[in-house]
Amino acid sequence: MNKIWTVAVLVIYLGSSVTPLENGLARTPPMGWLAWERFRCNTDCKNDPENCISENLFKTMADIVVNEGYADAGYEYINVDDCWLEKERNSYGQLVADRTRFPTGMKSLSEYIHSKGLKFGIYEDYGNYTCAGYPGVLGFLQRDADTFASWDVDYVKLDGCYAHPIDMDVGYPEFGFHLNRTGRPMIYSCSWPVYQIYAGMQPNFTSIIEHCNVWRNFDDIQDSWASVESIIDYYGNNQDVIVPNAGPGHWNDPDMLIIGNFGLSYEQSKTQMALWAILAAPLLMSVDLRNIRPEYKAILQNKKIIAVDQDPLGIQGRRIYKHKGIEIWSRPITPLFQNYFSYAIAFINRRTDGTPSDVAVTLKELGLTSPTGYRVEKIKLVTERLWKSHVEALGLRARFYQTIDPGDKTWKHNLTLLICSQTED
C-alpha cells in the first residue's frame, strides 16, 4: 500500500537575490504545461488522434490554459517534449517536425501559442539521439540553436540520452552559448546533473548555475505516489547540496506536476503542490486539461500556494524536522520586516496508522526569530472552492498546535494554510 501523506502549509509573512544568468530569464520558477508525463511518445494519430503528440494537442492545451484560468494563475509556457521530430534531418542538416503530426510546422505552432499570449517550449537532447530515438543536437549545436531562434522558441529542454556524462561539462555550456548568441531569450533547462549523478560523478553546480536556468537532479516523475514520495525524500536527504544552488534565474527541478492524472489521490495532490512550492520548483503541469476534475484544477490554480512558489526572493525551502512519520518543511519568503523573513511552513504526516497526529511547536522552534512575534492566519480548505480563515497573534514562545489528519480520497481534510506576518508591537 502506498503511503498517504497529509499536509498543512504555514505561511509566515514578515528573503536574498542571487545574480541572474546572462539571459535574465526565470527570475521566478517557470510555470506552464508540458506534454511528457501524461502523453509520453504517443505518435499514433491514426488510431488516437485526440491524444497523440501533434500540433492539435498543443493548440488545444494552449486554448484551455488561456480560457480556463490557468494563464491568469501564472502558467505561461506550452512545452513540447520528445517525439515531435522526423526521424532524419533535412538535406540542409536542419531539424524538421514530423510532417504528418505537425503539418504546419513548428514556426506556425509557435505563432499560434504566442497569439494566445503564451510562450513556446521545445525539447532536444545533447546526444546523437533523443531518448525516444529522434535526431539529437550533437554535431549541430549552432545550427539547432539558430533553428530554435528562427521558430521564436522561448524555452529549450535539453535531455542527456545517448551522450557521455563526462562530455556534458563542455557540451551543455556550449549549447547554452549558442542559444544566447542568437539574441532570442530562451529559458535553458538542462538534464546535465542527473546523468552525472547516475554515473557516479559529482556535478559542477557552479558551472551548472552559470549556464542553465533549470536543471534536473533526480528520476523522471511517474504517475504514482511512490514516485512523488521518492522525489521528496531525495530533496530532503540531499538538501545541503541542492538548496544553495537555487535562486532567481536558476532552479532545481523536481519534475512535473502530475495532479489530475490517475496516480494521486486528492490529498496526495495537495501535498505535491505544497511541497513543490516550498522547493521553489518549476510548476509544469502534465495533465489532460480537457477533462481534469474541478477539485484538481482548484489545486493547480491555488493562488496562495502559487504565490509561495513564485516568491521573488527565490530561496528554496528545507526539511527542518523529521520524526516518527511527521515532517516539517520551511521556506523563507517575502515580505521582510526589520530584516526578518516571512516563512512558508508545511506540516506533513507520513504515518500510515490511520489516526490523526498532533504537532505542538513554538514559532521559535520552527526557526522564527522576530522579537515582535507574528500574525498567524489559518486558512482551511472546506470545499473545493471555499476557504475559511482564522487570525491570531503569536509570540515566539507561544505554542502552535496543528492536527494533521490522515490522508484519504475526500477533500474535507488537510491543506490547512497558515499565513503569518510579523507584528509591529
TrEMBL record:
A GO-annotated cellular component: membrane
EC code: 3.2.1.-
PROSITE patterns listed in its UniProt record: ALPHA_GALACTOSIDASE
Keyword annotations of the record: Disulfide bond, Glycoprotein, Glycosidase, Hydrolase, Lipid metabolism, Lysosome, Signal
Predominant localisation class: other
Lipid metabolism found in the keyword field: yes
Subcellular location(s) per record: Lysosome
First and last residue of the signal peptide: 1-20
Gene Ontology biological process terms, A to Z: glycolipid catabolic process; glycoside catabolic process; oligosaccharide metabolic process
A single MF term (Gene Ontology): alpha-galactosidase activity
Keyword Lipid metabolism: yes
Entry similarity comment: Belongs to the glycosyl hydrolase 27 family.
Subunit structure: Homodimer.
PANTHER family given in the database record: ALPHA-GALACTOSIDASE (PTHR11452:SF86), ALPHA-GALACTOSIDASE/ALPHA-N-ACETYLGALACTOSAMINIDASE (PTHR11452)
Listed name of the protein: Alpha-galactosidase
Native species: Phaedon cochleariae
